[in-house]
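Appendix B, example 12.
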Amino acid sequence: MQILVVTNPAARRTKPHLSRWVADRLSDVAKVDVIATTHRNHATEIARDAATRGLDAVVALGGDGTVNEVLQGLAGSPTALAVLPGGSTNVYGRILGLPRSLTGATSILFQALKENRVRQVPVGRANDRWFAWCAGFGYDADVVREVEWHPRMKRYLGQTSFLYHGWEARKRAAETTIDIEAGPARPKGRQRGALKRERVLGAAVVCNADPYTFFGPLPSRMCPEATLERGLDLTALTDISLPALLQTMRKALTGRDVRDLPWITGWHDREYYELTASRPLPVHTDGDPVGTTQHLRVEVVPDALQLIV
């Protein structure tokens, strides 16, 4: 077995000696090479080349941004993705049940490689961008973009920086509307539903898994029914006032169903969604800002990813 470890030296827990330790630990079950990224989208270039060369797996050692970049190069190919925690939040790894410690997660990966534990999972696609578990359009993508544009504040304030930037983003979202068309429920799903259209304010999130993110140790469950094996869930807001946002956050972080709130609308296990905004809005995939658009098509692609877990 031949695998490649892609590491992001800018992530919080990916020092060179840790990358070497991971490679040494996995070398008993595979031939291992390590490449460190040097620029944005470099992980995509590396992963795409690895897939072209027919490598068995690419290990994303970094934060969720690194995972998303590697996914762009592997989706639709026979080369598998594996994840090791190296960032500050590591949402996808935690969704997969991996421990937050690099030592523990590497031990699990070692055993998975030894036993050849590979599963096919659906992957989401937002226009031409793949996502592993979530995409955002409008408010939350705006917040993510602002946080990324102010790295020094993020470094000093951590996740609190999201709350700071959320205030200004809320004002912009309140002046925007999004028309949503929800596609039919997946044929294999238990839910039965036809097309549905609705208008909301400038805040919508689409999930391929649960939770949507974490705030410290607490999962934020914006799409509590979403799973890796099913279609896409969408949650949107019709009220983006400060009281509504605070109550939505409280519900999501305490494990209660946010869809019980009167200003929340959403759908479960759908094949696709078409979102059209009154102006171009920011988009994120897996917490990684990817530009702006006025129209976003989000769809699920079955069995698009080979995943080592």
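Residues 188-192 have pLDDT under 50 and may be disordered. Residues 131 and 165 are 23 Å apart (CA to CA).
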